[in-house]
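ARCHIVE CARD
SHELF: 3
SLOT: left
DATA:
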Amino acid sequence: MTLTFADTHNMVAYLNKSDASDGFNQFINFLNGSYIEYALTVNPTIYVSCIKQFWNTVAVKQSNDVTRLQALVDRKKVVVTEAAIRDALFLDDAEGVDCLPNEDIFTELARMGYEKPSIKLTFYKAFFSSQWKFLIHTIL
């Protein structure tokens, strides 16, 4: 498998209000006040050569119920764990929800106005209102 990289990869969210953001200010306020704000807006320099080295040498390792990715980048061992990602992105929700029952998901989707209820766990942005589409696009 060959990885491809584009200028649009590693894009950050711009959570500033402007005339163009009318109708989305509530989401912008929410995201600016949420624990994921830093993860959405941080813009580190990431070199393509380092990314390629990482993915060409990565291996999944497991010990003591901790799964980690281990790779060599510029002949240095790089270890990535969930805890390291949470720490780097300032995500303080380690004790958050691990699993959400399907019934709860469908109830909340209906409350959000999702236009095409289903029993399957496949969702399409097209069936969300424009504000929810914006939020989904920002997060994904």
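SLOT: right
DATA:
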Amino acid sequence: MDFLNDLLNYYQLSKEQYEIMTRPLSYGDLRFDYRVKGLEPLLVRIKKAIASKEKIIVYGDYDCDGIMSTSIIVKVFELLGHPIGYYVPSRYIDGYGLNVRRVEEIAKKGYSLIITVDNGISAFEAISLAKEKGIDTLVVDHHEVQGDKLPDAVGILHPFVSELGEYAASGGFMAFVLATALLDKVEPYLLALAGISTISDMMPLLGYNRDLVRLAIETMNRNHFPSIARLTGDKNIDEKVIAMEIAPKINAVGRMDETTNINRLIKYFVSSDTADIESFGSIIETINETRKALTKEVVESLEAIGDVPGIVLKLDIKEGLIGLIANRLVNEHHVPTIIFAEDSTDKTLLKGSMRSKEGFNITKAFGSLEKYLVTHGGHAFAGGLAIHKDDFESFKKDFIVLADRYRFVEEEIAAIPISLNDINMQNYEKIRTFSPFGEGFKEPSFLVTGLKAANLTFISNDKHLSTIIGMNVKLLGFNISRQEVSKLSYIDIYGNMQLNEFRGRYTLEFRVSSYRANKLL
């Protein structure tokens, strides 16, 4: 078989498109500031503020994208020789976005310019108040614009308002565009932070997002950035390390910390003091381990969930965990899921996180449940909402009816047929030429047919498939048990190739995602 040609067909790419997609990139390819509209008012206002020695504050957000965005802007002003203030709101004290109370405090402290990052596009009241108090606002955001309504800001940098292109971009991406324009060059560390933000916020890895992430990963592996290395154990970085190790650790601080100590994360990413980085790096690790343990504990404590069309639960847990629990349950039970917890900023409300899959559109569901919603937002398969506590039972009943009406669509797995002999390092390296993989450009899935069930081996009391094939290549399938597989004579398996690193040794694995009975043998 022509493995490369099969991959091109899988992604519906021509040879020419593949060559363009995998071409060597330079920092010159990332001068997005040349192509966006509306950047000039931001640059003029910032340069005026620096020349006049004005007090400037950047107002960020508590998720990974928000932390990266804030760090990029704080760092670029440091490089320009004009240190600024910063504030990342607490999920538990402030909630999301620039608010009136914080504008009042900003005014009292004598700031004359606010730069919002990863928020601001819908902060109409807060930005109007700032203007009344003589404070200008610059908005650097990527969230959905509410119709054609824009805040009364001096300047707005937004992927669609600024006509960046056809793809969504992260807050960190837009902050990087502004930073690059201010410096008139690409700063490697700021590029690294923008790459982390793009993957953490699940932006489509296509077009300019793809170029930015490719170069960000190359830059991280070519340079030793202490703040990033501390979160990875100094290992080689790819898109999986960012998505599975770096981003969750950063997000954990915002999820778990009920004080404004999340602002220490900005110091962590801006500081060049290795002792500070090591000290707070240990705290980040501890917070993340607590987050994992609590999530596991909550999931295991839930009562058995039967065959239901939808899941709606009200739990006595930290608000920052509801999205993680919802995501876990939608993947386990394959039905639309909402997890509610008490809103930490308004005890009369429940804050919810909803997860779904193909067949049940969350934004359309919000339209059907609008009478209950105090606030809501999101996209087709993930969303957030708030309802009054007294409405919970009625909301739950109506949601279950809606979920029963719109069942998930069973997706047919697109996969490349291969043999066991095709699972080798040479082909794995061909796959990696298509990286980075992620939202909008998933890893290729493969299908191996006709495996004799009796020849397969299992581990952990026969709960997980683990079979060595060929030259030390492992078939690994979690929660694929001997008990289930032994009911069949021959099986077909779906999965992808992964390189596993353990104590400096690399082994190739075929990670089995699902299996089916072979109907021909």
